Amino acid sequence: MHHSKAHIWFVWPAIILMIVILILPIFLAGGISFTNYNLGNSSFEWVGTENYEKMFSRKTYIKMIISTATYVLIVVPVSVVLGLVAAIMLNSLRFGADIYKTIFFLPVMATLLAMAIAWEFTLHPTLGIINSFLANGCGGIREFILGFHWLPWVSSEDSWYSVACANNMDFPYWLKDKKTAIWTICFIGVWQAFGFNMVLYLAGLTSIPRELYHAAEMDGAQSTWEQFKLVTWPMLGPTTLFVVTITTIRSFQVFDTIEILTKGGPAKTTYVMMYAIFEKAIQQNITSIGAAITVVFIIFIILLTFFQRYVIEKRVHY
Amino acid sequence: MGTISLKNINKSFGSTEVLKQLSLDIQDGEFLTLVGPSGCGKSTLLKIIAGLEQQNSGDVIIDDKNVNSTRASKRDLAMVFQSYALYPHLTVRKNLETPLKLRDYSFVERLPLIGNFVPSRKEKKKSIDDLVFKTSETLKITELLDRKPGQLSGGQRQRAALGRAMVREPVAFLMDEPLSNLDAALRVHMRSELSELHNSLKTTFIYVTHDQAEALTMSTRMAVMIDGELLQLDTPSEVYNNPSSLRVAEFVGSPKINTFAAQISSDGSVEFMGIKLERKFNTNSQKALVAVRPEHLEITKDSNKPAFEATVSYRENLGSDIFYHVQVDQSDSKIIVRGSPQAGLFSNGETVRISPSHAEAMLFETSGERIR
After folding, report:
1. A304 belongs to a structural domain
2. Which chain B residues are within 8 Å of A219, Cβ to Cβ?
3. Domain B255-371 is found in CATH 2.120.10.90
4. Which pLDDT tens digit goes with each residue over B275-321?
5. Is the complex ipTM higher than 0.90?
6. What 8-state DSSP symbol labels residue A254?
């Protein structure tokens, strides 16, 4: 057989582009993370692992890891489960499914930046619609429902709602309070992400053959739960894998809402990785630290990819 | 026991009537085939029996019990689907276990992990394993038990689907064109296997097919359905030799039966294509249709027999038989005649004489009813 070198000519533009755009910057970031280089400096010195030591000893960076992990571990499971539940419910609707699809999908299509500004107004402690809604509901049905007075172990005097009403409408400050800020950000993250997951699950659901449900029914799977366990969930395996992967990566990348709403605060409780990279490398111009965070970020993503590739993929049936 | 009877079943999808006042009695242990062209409502009827589809009116009675409001999983029937509908993420073994587990295990025993600690589960697991093994031996799929459906060939999948229906002992088996996804040779082979299976299980089989060959070869009785109506219910040979209407005669039999316009004189003698039938018929009609199956026409050069002239337009050689498509000279109709290779070959364009063999012609009204 004649060995032609033509294939090299076809491949090299792609390889060169990949090296220049992807591989090289990663190694560059890796290199810079071992120096004290700042953008604009004419020289630099090797500082070894000092940047990494800082990262794992200073409280700020510990908080960065904690807030990123919190965000990812809340947003991924909640938005995936909500997306699945919404998709299954919409799939069983005869009328009006399109309206709900639009409602749930709107946050995905809208610019997160603009949405974040809208949320800022909504969540404002004194002017926001949420807190005024809560304040107007003191002593009424809203207090009963949202204060969890319907749960037998919650007394109607000690619930968070009653206490806030009694203390001159002292409702949560949402984004301004270090106890609630990260959860509020997570809530917005879920609100924004689950519509996308829902659409993916809807597509997955339509590809399940109806005959499988018939077979399950003939085999004696009577409850919806049995049919879900026997047919729906396994058949959605590939969709779930994709949804989880993409949501995880997007959650790691959360930036817009943080930048608009909290700037990493209060007390660094919402100081997620992407925002840390931005703040250190761009705003404070400490390129080396930014590079070190980036490397840790890349390692997280690589670990995640390996986990997906070698652990989950084996359990998914295509 | 496995008697099923349907009483005045009506079903429509929107404004389309699919089943019209259909009644049918299925006896215990019989192999009943529902046969008809695509879209005649036979699969819908099967789903109504299974409970997967709800009839608009009429009754489904299984073992003398009205099951109209009983859901599919409680009717104790087993079904083999056209696409097999095996659970693709489970091994064949697990596929076979599923119907047993869902029916025999209690809710607690089915729970993952916790179920393992319920003492009664062990015993049940043992009997399930035995049943699965026994079934897989009958169907010769023992070595496939640990494979997933995606790793099986069409025929093996078909067996696995049969196995899933067979592991428990249902009142009746419902089969929805189970052989239509197999290649021709395997289909012929599976026909005999299914017949043997029916003989050994002695359970009621209800088998839906559009292939009249399957219906003719396997069934004890066949129900011919066209356009949502049951036209004839009888043994295969009776349906073939003695069809009740022209539509049945045209549907059953391959190649299709030949029809000729015929004149009836006042004394009841029938004449078509210049040939007089020996039998006399008792009818008031003057015009009718004579239908003759291809094997009851003889292609010849012999000019002594009563015959009509035709030109061979196409020769179909199947080895054991040869079918000649011939153009009738006096009219523009085409008919099909069976010849045997021993009688010599006729080539395209050759002028031949076609003669009907003795007393095999059937007479139908122009509207399609049989004249006897």
Report:
1. yes
2. 73, 98-99, 102, 164
3. no
4. 888 888 887 888 888 888 888 888 887 777 788 888 888 888 888 88
5. no
6. -
